[in-house]
Write a structure and sequence with these properties.
404 residues; mainly alpha; two-stranded antiparallel ribbon; 57% helix
């Protein structure tokens, strides 16, 4: 569908008679539809070609047209450079002179964009103007591509604006983070990765005016990267202190819905919902939802008595690493068995292995108790099978053959 406003806005930027404007409008309307031109840049380029054809004297048909903006002014100049003009050499040369470089500018200029104000909501229009200023002062991207991509992506801009909500907040984020590039077709702003150096709280405080009025849930939605960084560094409580409040039905529903998404891990649910993991645990407990970490802990503690403190055996039964099992046993203050091959290491720094004579008194009776089976004796004692066999051999006992 042909955009009539774009055609009229471009034609209005030229000093043409009403009769010629009407004629060019009719031609452009038909040809743009037939040529399937969709972008504003395409509209402008084609209409500029028409104006050139109908307004330039015949003798200048083969001249080069240059639309430019005079430096330090807002005045547009439509120059005609013909074969009689010395300035043509500046364009043909590989290295144009400095004056040409400084004066040459763009076809799409911000003042032409002003004629499109009626097509945007006030806030969105103000946001785009701010982006143009930011591009001019800091980004210094190709303004032709930059402006045309903005105009061609109104819906995308509305989405971005809705996400950030406030022009000043968005611009503060844009200035504080390195912009890698701005993509066109579709329009998108790609921001560089922030380096917190292990202290995202410092960044949070530096831009406090953006974040101070937000809840954790709002921060997670508005700037998920910062929220996750604060949570990972255990600084979220300092940045946005948790205050006990009565949860609404919608909040409870959101926490319940996050159970499957987060795979029942409270810390993952914290990043999804924006609520503190302690609050999430309470809600899940209230509705009898199982939290794997607590179930695993209980299982590991029970294995201590079943495996007689043998972490290796407990690891095989539970299919959990020995390191994890030992960690939970230490937290509960349980005595950790010392491996027979690590003579000088005491895992819980309190367990003292019995002396050789004491070991002998404990191991010798096991020969009769477990019917000469060293493997059975090992399962029900704190000693390895090989240690038991060594003491039995030393005592002169007949060793039962394996499997016998």
């Amino acid at each position: 569908m042909v955009n009539e406003k774009w055609i009229r806005n471009v034609l209005d930027s030229y000093e043409l008679s009403e009769r010629l404007k009407s004629k060019l409008f009719g031609i452009a309307f038909l040809r743009i539809d037939k040529l399937n031109i969709n972008s504003f840049e395409g509209y402008y380029g084609y209409i500029a070609h028409l104006v050139d054809q109908f307004s330039t004297p015949w003798i200048e048909k083969h001249a080069l047209r240059l639309d430019s903006l005079l430096k330090d002014t807002e005045q547009k100049v439509h120059d005609i450079i013909s074969t009689e003009d010395n300035s043509l050499q500046n364009i043909i040369e590989d290295e144009p002179d400095e004056e040409y470089k400084q004066n040459k500018n763009i076809i799409l200029t911000p003042d032409i964009f002003n004629s499109f104000k009626g097509e945007f909501e006030d806030d969105t229009y103000a946001f785009i103007c701010k982006l143009l200023e930011l591009n001019k002062s800091e980004l210094k991207l190709d303004p032709n591509t930059f402006l045309s991509s903005i105009i061609d992506s109104k819906e995308k801009i509305k989405f971005l604006f809705k996400k950030f909500g406030n022009i000043n907040n968005l611009l503060d984020i844009l200035k504080s983070r390195k912009i890698v590039y701005i993509q066109s077709n579709p329009f998108n702003i790609h921001l560089g990765r922030r380096r917190y150096n292990g202290n995202p709280l410092a960044y949070f405080r530096e831009h406090k005016q953006c974040y101070e009025s937000m809840t954790r849930q709002q921060l997670a939605k508005y700037d998920s990267g910062l929220h996750n960084a604060l949570s990972d560094c255990n600084q979220l409580q300092i940045a946005i202190p948790y205050s006990a409040t009565t949860l609404s039905e919608n909040d409870i529903k959101k926490i319940m819905d996050s159970y499957e998404t987060a795979k029942a891990v409270p810390f993952k649910a914290e990043k999804i919902t924006g609520f503190d993991h302690k609050t999430i645990k309470k809600v899940w407990h209230k509705f009898n939802l199982e939290i794997p970490s607590e179930t695993i802990k209980e299982k590991i503690i029970n294995l201590y008595s079943i495996c007689n403190g043998n972490a290796s055996r407990a690891s095989k039964i539970a299919r959990i690493s020995i390191t994890t099992i030992l960690k939970y046993w230490r937290k509960e203050g349980l005595s950790i068995r010392k491996p027979c091959y690590q003579k000088d290491i005491d895992y819980n720094y309190s367990y003292i292995p019995p002396l050789k004579e004491e070991r002998r008194k404990e191991i010798i009776p096991l020969y009769y108790k477990y019917n000469r089976s060293a493997s059975m004796a090992s399962k029900h004692s704190n000693y390895s099978t090989q240690t038991i066999l060594n003491y039995w051999k030393e005592a002169g006992f007949k060793i039962r053959p394996h499997g016998g």
